[in-house]
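Journal club prep, notes for RB
We'll compare a predicted complex against what the paper describes. Inputs for the coenzyme A case:
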Amino acid sequence: MGEVLVRPMRAEDVAAAEQLSGEAFLALDRQVYRRDEPDPQPRTAEHRAGWVARTRHFLDTDPGGCWAVDDADGTMVGFATSIRREGTWILATYAVRPGRQGRGIGKQVLDAALTHSRGCLQGMLSASDDPRAVRRYLLAGFTMHPQMHLTGTVDRRAIPADTGRRVREGTPADTELMDSLDRRARGAGHGPDHPMLQGLFRTIVSDTTAGSGYAYLGATGAVVLLAASNRRTAQALLWSAIADGPAEQTIGHVTGANDWAVAVGAAARLDVRTRGYLALRGLRPPTTYLHHGALL
Ligand SMILES: CC(C)(COP(=O)(O)OP(=O)(O)OC[C@H]1O[C@@H](n2cnc3c(N)ncnc32)[C@H](O)[C@@H]1OP(=O)(O)O)[C@@H](O)C(=O)NCCC(=O)NCCS
């Protein structure tokens, strides 16, 4: 490996980091995708814009958690962004330029980001299927919990008749409730991430005597984050998202601890597939919770 420089990431690095990340994940997807799935495609403009907005937010809230690696000529060859929320360290994203991987650059930049985890008893990240990434996380003390995604054409006849009855649109006034649900599910609120998420996504909330919960829904209606106080409420939110969504749907980031979500997916006749891992340190897999890939 030639000489590289690990340094704090800056706002002016975000566009180059997005490009590097897009290349690294596309190269990985091309290596690991299944032949019966559509060929991996470059990110859409919408995906890229969301990535950039999120990374700017990380630099605002956690400048000490975001690191870049430069080559001797000043070209960025890797980076890692991480945040700290109420004693939980979260690795948001992490990549090394294709062609430069597997030669120790990733270790150096992850070690820099891990300095931001000092004093945090808990850690979370959503890992890719890259064996190099998995090795780095195992060596950093994480346990790996395989993730499923539920995908296919929804059988709309399976949607319960009372779907949506206990669910309403969320507002910023629900943020305190959302943080409480996060703490109960994963030991830490999302804090400053909620206003950002509320700006990017539709929010649905259920808050009745039967239980409380919320979910953020992406542009295609897919759940990008869900937390609930019990399984019944988690299922009511998931059914509501499915009912409002398109014919083809994917519910991602489902672990073995989320059997309530697997049951909904099976009832809706979605296929179960595995992809990546939920990696945890000092924490058991959350149950009535579907994590966000970067904000966990
Ligand atoms: C994951 C990633 C950031 C790691 O960076 P890197 O520079 O490749 O990592 P390193 O070289 O420091 O470490 C890789 C480790 O895996 C080992 N390794 C290399 N090739 C491997 C392979 N094909 N299979 C298994 N292990 C491998 C290395 O020997 C090293 O372990 P060691 O330090 O004990 O020797 C980089 O590979 C990448 O960008 N991957 C694609 C995007 C991705 O998956 N990002 C992580 C998202 S969660």
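Talking point for the session: Residues 24-25, 28, 94-96, 101-107, 127-128, 130-133, 135-136 surround coenzyme A (CB under 6 Å).
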